[in-house]
Every structure is written in structure tokens, then in C-alpha cells.
UniProtKB/TrEMBL annotation:
This is DNA 3'-5' helicase. SUPFAM superfamilies: P-loop containing nucleoside triphosphate hydrolases. It catalyses: Couples ATP hydrolysis with the unwinding of duplex DNA by translocating in the 3'-5' direction; ATP + H2O = ADP + phosphate + H(+). The keyword ATP-binding applies. Residues 632-651 are annotated as: Disordered. Pfam families: UvrD-helicase, UvrD_C. ATP binds at G262, G263, A264, G265, T266, G267, K268, T269. PROSITE patterns: UVRD_HELICASE_ATP_BIND. Residues 241-521 form the UvrD-like helicase ATP-binding domain. Its EC number is 5.6.2.4. Keywords: ATP-binding, Helicase, Hydrolase, Isomerase, Nucleotide-binding.
Length: 685
């Protein structure tokens, strides 16, 4: 029986065929897999550069192209006959001698550019890799047949021009050497292309099947018609992860909690989903996948349904958010649903106190100092550090603030009400009591989950982290956390170490969502500078890159808000006319008022219109962000007055920048930004 591996191009090309042809192709592949009567026969391709290339007649006028080695068939694509033959003649396939992964070579394209590279070499004595010997290049896996051309490359521009024609395993290390990096630097670049852990065995370049197993981004083996259907029908992200994503998501076991950070669109959510699926398949115990909001958790649950086929495994993953978890634990313990205090009620309570500080100041002090550190007594508060709070408080002032906190919490208690953060702290205390970390060692351990996977980690409050920590035992694979400190849109600065999560950090660097033009504009908007990380120290946006080019963001200035709305309606109407499905268009604004106006301007178009906050975690082909004007972004009332607390104000500004950055980085294809009057100070000039 043949063993079949499918490449990502195959389902993509299949999707482009008409329904009857598609059906015939699937039936033919299934027959071929099962080696039954009527199965297509592999036919060699005359004139192919790679003797292992064969075609299979899969439907009338259509052929699959495959690499065949012994009983293994790697199905590359399916195309109309003539195109299939041309495709087979144009490509060759190899095994990278350093990593043992497969490499796809567009030989025809390389032959076309060869003369230009050689002409440049004739007119210049410079050779980009003159300082690197053949042995070193071979050690980096540089292909023997490609080496003569490598030797002719005179400068970095030529190497860059070759990039789209080269396997990443060839371009990556060469680009590192060209930048002046050492062999170690070039190796690091190569290692980024490794998807599965190295076994230490030497690479056999003739063992194509083993190379396919090491290349899950290029090939997935299908052992049954059911698996075949899944690979052909499921969205590509369900099946093919990029090597760094795959390595993180499917690593056998982590000794310590893992923190995966990365810029917008690097696939953090996908990694969180795949890690959850991997743990569920392994069946080691109940998994909680948490994200920021109820809406996002519904979306994650739906995506998990697509990803995990096996019902029993799917049931092992609960998807939710931390607030719901807290609510449930407290409800179960008290036998009824807790009542929450509203924001206005809370402000009124702070106003009853007499500290000389505003309700906003007191609320922050309570949430970011008292609740963040779980301070329970005045003595603890008097000596506690107050990170991020630049207004010094003397001892008597702290005492007054503490009395205010006591007043508010006492009043809430009398009314039988709590805030969400209080509920969260109570839930962790309840779990702590059952797990025994507050009691003697012998108390029964009853953490509700065996693994917790966290998405959008940058916006969780320390009290929420403490709850998550208490909800899972300290054991291998306990916590797997993904987030991006640059996308923080709430006031939560936490180092995981301070809440008992001793995480090891890994970074994803490549955005698969954003074209380079939106990415670099976004980085300038975000300020490019560091953000407080989830581990000690700050995170840089340095090294964040895209895989493709696109259009530069369109920034439009209007004379009046009315004209701006008319401009928005025209722009979005044009997108819809161009055939972009309305659900692939997102429109966002900072204020609820602007959102309402945009909704009414776009009434009949059926596109999603939301606040900047509402854009978190979403993705669209085209995005319009309106009202990015001075006085609206940031809204003055969202900023702490500088004379009240300058460092809180600086943080507010960073948060507001982050918010705009989040909304603008939702666009896969086009970004349109508009304002009337003066531009927001955040917009890059
Ligand atoms: N392996 C993959 N296969 C297909 N598409 C991918 C893959 N990895 C990333 N993408 C594309 O990039 C998008 C971003 O992925 P994801 O939402 O997981 O990123 P993220 O890092 O969580 O983004 P953000 O932090 O901006 O919310 C996906 O929706 C998809 O379009």
C-alpha cells in the first residue's frame, strides 16, 4: 500500500477547482491510497529535472504531481494536465543535509536569474561569501548544486533578490552570513526552520520519507480516508504549522511553565490552540484554555472544534475566561451566584472617603497595589512596594488610603456585593484551601485542571494569575502561556515570577498576518520601544518581521467628521464592490459615539463595526480605523492628569497607543486610517 503525504499546496489548489472535479480528485486519491481497482497509476514525467517526480491522473484533464520514493508519495499539487507537467519540469526536491528537512527548488526560476547573477559577478570582483569556505557552507546545509551560484553572488542586494526563489533553509543562513554574523549566528537562523526536535542521528539525504516526517509544515502523512478528509477539508492553520509554531505547540513535555511572546499575527493563538489539542490527544487530564473575554473564548471554542476531531479528546478541553472561572468557583462554594458591584456604585463609594485623592486614583491604588499584591493588612500595605505609582505616599497618607479601602470593601460587604477582582481573589483563596497550600501538606489536592493554556496573557491582572496558578498543580506541562506585551490594552503590569509562575520564555518573530508595510507602520505607531514584559525586564519589538509585501496603510485627512464618515462609507462600499465579503471587513473607532455613527453610515453593508477594544484578537482582510484625531485618540478623560500621577499618565499613554496598534494590526491585506481636524499624536508622520 502506498504511504501518502500531502503538501499544503494540494488542498489549496484543490479548493480552486470546480465541485465535480474536486469530488473526482478526492475519490481518486482515496482509491490510490487504498490501492483498489481504478486507482490512478503513477506516470514518470518526461524532461523532469527530478527523476522522482510522477503525475497521477486524478480527474478528467487534471493531474496530481507527486514526489515518489519507494512506497512514499508526497502529493504536491493538483493542476490541469499541461500545468501539472510544466510544474513537474520546473521543480526539484531535496533534503537539507544539516537539518534533514525537505527543500523545494524552483529550478526554472533559478536558471532564469543565473545569467544576471553571473553578469554581475563578471563586472565586480566582490564575492559576498568569499570569507566562508565550502566546508562551512556544506556544514550549514548549503546545497551542492546551488553552491556555484552562491559563489557568484557579489552583494546583499542580489541575495535578497534571490530570496523568493530559495528554500528558507538556504536563504536564512546565507542572509545571516551576509549580515556579518558568525557561523553560530547562521546556525541559529537555520535552527529556526527546525520543526521537530533533533534526534542526534545523522541526516540521510536519500531518506525522503524521514525528511517528510521532519517537515510537518511541508507534508502531513494521511493513514486513512478520514485523515485524508481532515487534511483536505480543514482550514490550513489546522494542519500546517510553521516550524517554530510546530516546535512550541507539539514539544513533548515542558518541565517549567512556558511563555510564548510574539508580535501581532505571529500565530500565538494558533500555537495555544494546537498546544491544547496536543495535550488533549495525549489524554493526561482536564485542560482549561483561557482567553481574555467571553466573545474570544466562543471563537476559540469554535476553532478547537475544527482542530480536534476526536470527541473524547475535545471534551478534555474547556474554553473560558478567568472571570467565568472565578464566578463559578465562588458560586459553587457559596451555593448562589455572587452579585457584582457596578462602576458608578464604586465611584460613589470612593467619593464618600476623605483622602484628598480622586476616586480614579484610589481605585488604581486598590487594584494595582492592594489587590495586585494581595495585601490584607495595613501593616503589609505600609511597607509594600508601589510599582508604577509615581506619587509618593507618606505613612499617614497610606493609612488614610487604607481606611478608604476598608470603607469601600466594608460597604460592599454590607450590600452583599463584590468587584470581579475581589471575586477572583476569593476564588484563589478557596482553591488554596482545598489544595492545601495554605494548610498542612496532607490536605486533599483538588485543582480543577491538569493543564492550563492562556491566550492574550498580557491583559491578565496579578489576582487572575494567582487564580490560574492555584487551579493547576505544580507539575510538568502545567501552564502554557501566550501573549504580546505590546498589545496590552489594560492597566496590568505583571511579572509572572511575582505570582509564582516561573516561566521560560520563547519568542515568535514572523507575522503571517501582516504585510511588511502594515507591520513597519504599526511598529512606528506603537513607538517601537520596549514594553513591560511578562517576565522580568522589558520586551523589544526588534526582530519582528513579515513574510510578504502589500499596500502601505492609507491615511486620510478630512475637513469635518461628516466628510470623514462619507469617506468611510465610500471606501468600505468600494471594498464590497471589489468582492471582499463584508464579514472580512472590520471598522473600528475609539469611542462608542463614533462607533454608532459609523454603524449608521455603513448600515446596509453588513461589515463589523466595533470599538478599538473590541478588535482585540480578531482578524480581517481589510480594516478601517476612523476618528484617529487629536482629542479623540487618546481621549483626554482616559488619561490620568499629569499633576496627579505622571507615571500613571505615561502608562495610560502607552496603553492607548497599544490599543490603536492592536486595532491597526488586525488587517491581513489593507489598512485605512482616517481623521478630521488634527491627526492623533500617535500617528506616524
Ligand atoms: N501556520 C499557519 N497557517 C496558516 N495561517 C497562519 C499560520 N500561522 C499564522 N497564520 C496566519 O496568521 C494569522 C495570525 O495568527 P494568530 O491569530 O494565531 O496570531 P497571534 O499572534 O495570536 O495574533 P495577535 O496577537 O495579533 O492576535 C492567522 O489568522 C493566519 O491568517
Amino acid at each position: 500500500m502506498p504511504r501518502i503525504a500531502i503538501s499544503p499546496e494540494f488542498p489549496a489548489e484543490l479548493g480552486a477547482l470546480t465541485q465535480p472535479v474536486r469530488r473526482d480528485v478526492v475519490v481518486a486519491v482515496r482509491r490510490f491510497m487504498q490501492n483498489v481497482a481504478g486507482a490512478p497509476h503513477p506516470e514518470r514525467v518526461r524532461g523532469a529535472g527530478d527523476p522522482r517526480l510522477v503525475t497521477l491522473r486524478l480527474a478528467a484533464g487534471h493531474r496530481g504531481v507527486a514526489v515518489k520514493q519507494r512506497d512514499v508519495y508526497w502529493l504536491l499539487t493538483v493542476l490541469p494536465d499541461a500545468e501539472a507537467w510544466a510544474y513537474a519540469r520546473r521543480h526539484r526536491y531535496g533534503v537539507n543535509s544539516a537539518l534533514g528537512v525537505v527543500e523545494v527548488w524552483d529550478t526554472a526560476a533559478l536558471e532564469r536569474v543565473g545569467p544576471a547573477v553571473r553578469r554581475a559577478a563578471e563586472s565586480s570582483p566582490a564575492r559576498l561569501f568569499a570569507d566562508t569556505c565550502d566546508t562551512d557552507l556544506a556544514e550549514l546545509g548549503i546545497d551542492r548544486r546551488f553552491l556555484p551560484l552562491v559563489r557568484q553572488i557579489t552583494d546583499e542586494l542580489i541575495l535578497e533578490a534571490l530570496e523568493p526563489l530559495l528554500p528558507p533553509t538556504q536563504y536564512g543562513p546565507l542572509a545571516a552570513l551576509a549580515r556579518g554574523e558568525s557561523m553560530a549566528g547562521a546556525w541559529r537562523e537555520l535552527e529556526a526552520c527546525r520543526a521537530v526536535a533533533a534526534t542526534g542521528d545523522p541526516v540521510d539525504p536519500d531518506d525522503f520519507a524521514a525528511a517528510l516526517v521532519r517537515s510537518p509544515d511541508r507534508a502531513v502523512f494521511v493513514g486513512s480516508p478520514r485523515e485524508l478528509n481532515h487534511v483536505l477539508d480543514a482550514p490550513d492553520w489546522c494542519v500546517f504549522l510553521h516550524p517554530p509554531q510546530h516546535r512550541l505547540a507539539r514539544w513533548e513535555s515542558y518541565e517549567q511553565p512556558m511563555l510564548v511572546t510574539g508580535g501581532a499575527g505571529t500565530g500565538k493563538t494558533l500555537v495555544a490552540l494546537h498546544r491544547s489539542a496536543f495535550l488533549a490527544e495525549r489524554g493526561g487530564g482536564q485542560i482549561l484554555l483561557v482567553t481574555f473575554s467571553q466573545g474570544l473564548s466562543a471563537d476559540l471554542a469554535a476553532r478547537l472544534d475544527l482542530l480536534i476531531e476526536d470527541e473524547t479528546a475535545r471534551k478534555r478541553v474547556e474554553v473560558g475566561n478567568v472571570d467565568r472561572l472565578a464566578h463559578r468557583i465562588v458560586s459553587e462554594s457559596e451555593g448562589r451566584s455572587p452579585v457584582l458591584a457596578g462602576a458608578a456604585e464604586l465611584t460613589a463609594l470612593w467619593q464618600e472617603t476623605d483622602t484628598g485623592h480622586s476616586p480614579a486614583f484610589l481605585l488604581r491604588e486598590w487594584e494595582q497595589v492592594v489587590l495586585a499584591q494581595n495585601l490584607r493588612t495595613l501593616e503589609e500595605y505600609l511597607t509594600a512596594p508601589r510599582p508604577g505609582r509615581s506619587v509618593e505616599l507618606t505613612g499617614p497618607e497610606r493609612t488614610a488610603v487604607w481606611r478608604a479601602v476598608e470603607h469601600v470593601t466594608g460597604q460592599l460587604r454590607e450590600r452583599g456585593k463584590r468587584t470581579l477582582l475581589q471575586l477572583t481573589a476569593e476564588a484563589s483563596a478557596l482553591l488554596g484551601q482545598t489544595t492545601g497550600d495554605l494548610l498542612e501538606e496532607t490536605a486533599p489536592r483538588r485543582e480543577p485542571y491538569r493543564h492550563i493554556v492562556v491566550d492574550e496573557a498580557q491583559d491578565l491582572h496579578p489576582a487572575q494569575w494567582r487564580l490560574l496558578r492555584a487551579a493547576v498543580p505544580h507539575a510538568r506541562d502545567d501552564l502554557f502561556v501566550v501573549g504580546d506585551p505590546h498589545q496590552r490594552i489594560f492597566d496590568t503590569r505583571v511579572s509572572l515570577g511575582s505570582v509564582g509562575i516561573d516561566a521560560v520564555q520563547r519568542r515568535l518573530q514572523v507575522s503571517y498576518r501582516l504585510p511588511q508595510e502594515i507591520l513597519s507602520w504599526g511598529v512606528r505607531l506603537r513607538g517601537g520601544g520596549p514594553a513591560d514584559g511578562l517576565v522580568e525586564g522589558v520586551q523589544e519589538l526588534y526582530g519582528f518581521q513579515a513574510t510578504r509585501h502589500g499596500h502601505r496603510p492609507m491615511v486620510r485627512a478630512y475637513d469635518s467628521p461628516e466628510e470623514e464618515l462619507t469617506g468611510l462609507a465610500t471606501q468600505v462600499g468600494q471594498w464590497v464592490e471589489e468582492g471582499v465579503p463584508p464579514q472580512e471587513i472590520g471598522v473600528a473607532a475609539r469611542t462608542a459615539g463614533l462607533v454608532r455613527e459609523a454603524r449608521s453610515a455603513l448600515r446596509d453593508l453588513g461589515v463589523r463595526v466595533t470599538t478599538l477594544h473590541g478588535m482585540k484578537g480578531l482578524e480581517f482582510r481589510r480594516v478601517a480605523v476612523i476618528g484617529v484625531a487629536d482629542g479623540t485618540v487618546p481621549p483626554p478623560d482616559s488619561l490620568t492628569p499629569a499633576d496627579e500621577d505622571p507615571s500613571a499618565r505615561a502608562h495610560d499613554l502607552q496603553r492607548e497607543r497599544g490599543l490603536l496598534y492592536v486595532a491597526c494590526t488586525r488587517a491581513r491585506e489593507l489598512l485605512y486610517v482616517s481623521y478630521s481636524g488634527r491627526a492623533s499624536p500617535f500617528l506616524p508622520t
